[in-house]
């Protein structure tokens, strides 16, 4: 049994293995070679935050793998009425074979994992978004043919996506520049650990510095879920941090633009960028399906290796 709470749970070799397996799932989707390793198994998909791509990718992934997805939301479960996470975990353990959870604090998914004797996967917390990062990496590798030797730029809020990019940079030895306003830096502990692992990571305030000669530029909304009341204030603070065509002109000619969606055109990214030829956000969204299949079967020990 394996939990997947952050990218560190996979390690560098594990990330590459999951990307390889995701590529295979993409190749065999809809063919007789696809297989149904989750046949007879149920997976609980807990959503304490709204979702489009995460819910779609996980429900379809479980179904195409032969399993039964069971969706639980805060409004439709006792979690929304304050049932202790430990109590929910004990029930889940007796009823399903794995759990994914999209929630708020990282401590919630950690507590769920502590009390579950089945795999728990982090489908997003305020601190990390590891399943999305696997999809980002698969997209970059599909376009560029490699993850190495590239310059990566994150522009915007130092949020959960930025933290997971920093984790990936530390594990894989990537060259990453994060451009964010003062006061909106990524998690300090995650940054220290990633640099100690060998990640070439710097934090800057000017997005032009990050974009200079970049091969990959990623961004996200300026106000994440739960921060809607801060939207106007954040828009003022982040002014000038949007991914524009002028910013792309500083990057390499074949720069890859990523956004995990939903996007606010004209704020963190311009319409002519996200809808332009250097945007791979739709490949990135599709990759959520293939990487979800990979990490689900890994966590459940159905990937041909020993889950312990």
Description:
The protein is of the alpha/beta class. The chain contains twelve helices and nine strands. The protein has helices spanning 11-28, 53-64, 85-95, 106-115, 130-144, 160-172, 188-197, 207-211, 231-237, 245-248, 271-274, 281-299, and strands spanning 42-47, 68-73, 98-102, 120-124, 151-155, 175-179, 200-204, 216-219, 256-259. It has a five-stranded parallel beta sheet. Strand 1, helix 2 and strand 2 (68-73) form a beta-alpha-beta unit. Helix 2 (53-64) crosses helix 12 (281-299) and helix 5 (130-144) crosses helix 12 (281-299). The N and C termini lie close together (6 Å).
In a few lines, what is going on in this structure?
The chain has 308 residues and is α/β, with parallel strands linked by helices. The protein has helices spanning 11-28, 53-64, 85-95, 106-115, 130-144, 160-172, 188-197, 207-211, 231-237, 245-248, 271-274, 281-299, and strands at 42-47, 68-73, 98-102, 120-124, 151-155, 175-179, 200-204, 216-219, 256-259.
Show the helix and strand layout:
Elements: H1 11-28, E1 42-47, H2 53-64, E2 68-73, H3 85-95, E3 98-102, H4 106-115, E4 120-124, H5 130-144, E5 151-155, H6 160-172, E6 175-179, H7 188-197, E7 200-204, H8 207-211, E8 216-219, H9 231-237, H10 245-248, E9 256-259, H11 271-274, H12 281-299
Helix pairs in contact: 1-5, 1-12, 2-12, 3-4, 5-12, 6-7
